[in-house]
Amino acid sequence: MTTLVTGGAGFVGSHLCERLLDAGETVIAVDNMVTGSRANVADFLGNPRFSLIQHDLLQGLPELPKVDRIFHMASPASPPAYQRHAIATLRVNAETTRQLLDIAVRDGARLLFSSTSEVYGDPLDHPQREDYRGHVSSTGPRSMYDESKRYAEALMMAYHDAHGVETRIVRIFNTYGPRMDPGDGRVVSNFVVQALRGEALTIYGDGSQTRSFQYIDDLIEGIFRLMNSDHHLPVNIGNPNEFTVLELAEKVLRIAESTSEVHFLPLPPDDPVRRRPDITLARDLLDWQPEIPLEEGLERTVEAFRQVLFGDQRTGRQSPAAQSRAIS
Ligand code: UDP
Fold first, then answer.
1. DSSP 235-260
2. Contact, 117 vs 128, CB < 8 A?
3. How far is CA 304 from the centre of its chain?
4. What SS3 state is found at 34?
5. 204 in ligand 1 pocket by Cβ < 6 Å?
């Protein structure tokens, strides 16, 4: 089986590549390294079944062999990153998705699109089920992400109907874990880096807004099962345990054994008040549910970030991934 992973050197994409390699697949990763990095794939770069093409998908698709499966994971995903790369975000979700759908038609390949809980916007229904149509701004500061993901879902459905493409659509809820870019700007990476460096934790607003944080391994398992299912409609993959941002800050401080202060900063406009997936569909369809509680996931994440930021304190050495990150 030959599998293409766009965004394969990103946070989610790299974990997915690793999982697919473990399952015996031949994996071609394409990444422009804007939010991805070589450090993320350093642990399996030498695997003969893995190849990495450094390429900007906005220039069109690279020359590709016949593929069996495609995971379209390429897109900035943290609000500061997609706002900084607004037009690229719109294009990679809209134009690149269409080009990949044409490859899926050409090769008879199955295509999984990485959609997002942001298709629900600032939700009025809680928790969010897949049939909730959302509360989204088409012009607001998150619109480049939310609306291009919504458009891509529509495109997937149209190709499914017109060409019989085997579509899979995963709506990913907040995910964290090792290989998040420390400068990515998302809440878990920000808090962990700040706690480890002894800097103040930056809480936007009063910290009462909620999110439901899922550990990366749980997400990858859900995506893997979804691709192998026969369900062509969107499926939520997320952890339904909901926490306020303030609770998250307290947990990070305790787990990192940090004495950092907490600073309250203005809440960015259009920041969703709450978010929590209804995962009934994933449970029924994929026999999937998250296994890693927040505390355990945060412990692993804090350890991984400690490595990346300071190296292994026992041996004084850095892992290959950490070394490569330091160089790149
Ligand atoms: N947030 C925060 N401090 C930070 C980064 C984010 O309080 O340093 C808040 C942000 O305002 C939002 C939540 O944490 O309410 C989750 O933000 P993130 O950027 O991780 O993802 P989102 O779910 O908003 O896309």
1. EEES---EEEHHHHHHHHHHHTT---
2. yes
3. 17
4. coil
5. yes
CA distance 40 to 37: 6
Q: Model pTM greater than 0.85?
A: yes
Ligand 1 and 276: CB distance under 6 A: no
Ligand 1 center–CA 165 separation, angstroms? 35
Q: What is the pLDDT of residues 222-231, one digit of tens each?
A: 999 999 999 9
- Look at strands 214-215 and 110-116 and give their pairing: unpaired
CB 275 within 8 A of CB 214: no
When pLDDT is averaged across residues 268-289 and rounded to a whole number, the result is 97
Q: Domains of the chain (ranges plus CATH)? A: 2-179+214-240+273-293 (3.40.50.720)
Q: Tell me the residue type at 250.
A: E
H runs (alpha helix) in the chain: 11-22, 38-41, 79-84, 86-107, 143-163, 187-197, 216-227, 245-255, 280-286, 294-310, 320-327
| Active site (catalytic) residues | 145
Mutate to test the pocket of ligand 1, among 82, 174, 204, 242 (most ligand atoms within 8 A of CB): 204
3-state secondary structure of 179: coil
The three-state secondary structure class of 104 is helix
Ligand 1 in reach of 212 Cβ (< 6 A) = no
CA distances from 149 to 64, 248, 266 (A): 24, 27, 27
